[in-house]
Structures are given as structure tokens and as C-alpha cells.
Amino acid sequence: MKAQFHKHQKVWVEAVGAWASVERIVxxxxxxxxxxxxxxxxxxxxxxxxxxELRPAEVEELKDHQLGDEWRLMRARNKxxxxxxxxxxxxxxxxxxxxxxxxxxxxxxxxxxxxxxNPEKIEFQARLIARAPxxxxxxxxxxxxxxxxxxxxxxxxxxxxxxxxxxxxxxxQVPAPLDGDETKSEAA
Length: 188
Prior knowledge:
By secondary structure, the protein is α+β, with helices and mostly antiparallel strands. It contains 5 helices and 9 strands, in the order E-E-E-E-E-E-H-E-E-E-H-H-H-H.
């Protein structure tokens, strides 16, 4: 038997009618078996619950406004170096900024020292990030196509569609905090 939920996963507890987070997975072992014969979940509500009593939180569907179709690559002036000081950069005197808001603010930028260390890599990252929404739409369309044409699609297209679907689903999930991060979130 395999666990259906993971630690820190948000679940709906039917018996109580409340949301909770899986605090501990409790396997019950029996001699002679390679895996647990029963798994219960401690969600901090006074008793352990079976998987049948729990329901995972629905994964939010990505909304069109989250796709950021207005993302674009802009150039910002380098305040700390003149164009002569950074002649080895692809665009001396400036660095890339990916803007994700219609008002030209918000988004991605990199510290000047990191850009100076490897400008070609940072330029590539900026182009990739700016194109990410279009790549995400492509992945969604591929996953949908494969879902509709499972019988007639070639094996390699099926594999690519499953990978695309997994990527899209992973973007909609909020990751659980790492074990070491719990103290940081409690202090905030």
C-alpha cells in the first residue's frame, strides 16, 4: 500500500468538515509484508484519518491573467558601469529586465555583479523567461491535444504530452515548505 497524501499537503477532512494539513503519515506494518498493510494520516485533529476520509485540495486551474501574455524584455541602463567598462557585454551599458506588468514594473532582473560574470547566460535566461508564457500555452495545448487523441497519437507524442501536462500541473501547485523552512514561515 502506498501513501495517497504527502506531508504538509492540504486536505479536506470529511468527518470534521474542515481543512487541515498532513502532519504525519502513519504506516502500519505486518511481519512478512514488504510494504505497510494500512496507512493513516495525522492531521492534528486529535485522531488519525484514513485516505477515504480525506480529500486533496483542488489544484487551481491556471487563469489567463496568470500566464502573463504581456511579459516583455526591456533594457535598463547600467548605473554602476559605463559602456566602456563593460565592452565585453552583448549590449554594453545596459542589462536585461523582464517586465511582467503592463505598467513596465514588476518582473525579473539580475544583480549587476552576476550579469557581469556571465552576460551571455543572463541574456539567454531573460529571453527564456520573457517567452515562458508562450511556452506554457504551447505545453497546455500539447497536453490537451494528447488527452483528446490518446488512441491515434504516436508513442513519442504521448510521452511529450504527458511531460507537458505534468509541467502545467506542477505550476498550479503550491509547493509544501521544506522541513527546514517551517521556522522561517512561523517567524514571519
